Amino acid sequence: MSVNSSDMDSNPDSGGEISLPPPEIEIPPNSDSNSTDSRQMVMASSQEFFAGPLPPPYIMQGYENILPGSADRILKMAEGEQSHRHAMESDDQKHFQQMVSI
Questions:
Q1: Does the global pTM surpass 0.70?
Q2: Dihedrals φ, ψ of 91, to 5°?
Q3: Which helix H or strand E contains 10, and what residues bound it?
Q4: Which residue has the higher pLDDT, 65 or 2?
Q5: Quick check: 22 and 41 in contact, CB under 8 A?
Q6: Is 38 helix (H, G, I), strand (E, B) or coil?
Q7: CA end-to-end span of the chain, whole Å?
């Protein structure tokens, strides 16, 4: 199951912080039960995946809330990786062209 922004409570007065529901939810006792303790616990779990050089904006905001300036550092890291990748691809093309022209 993936979590999207509609599944989360966001308080506009909290500075962009996002709160997830608690992982455990208590279900009211079952009236048909003969046991002395008829409470049940349900464990809720969720997973979220993303692909690409940058996390989704709400995760970037979370990093920024914890360490101001970290979102900019993550962007610079992604830009540096892209520049490196482009340089490597350019070098590969140059070497290929040299081998073809021999």
A1: no
A2: -60, -40
A3: strand 9-10
A4: 65
A5: no
A6: coil
A7: 55
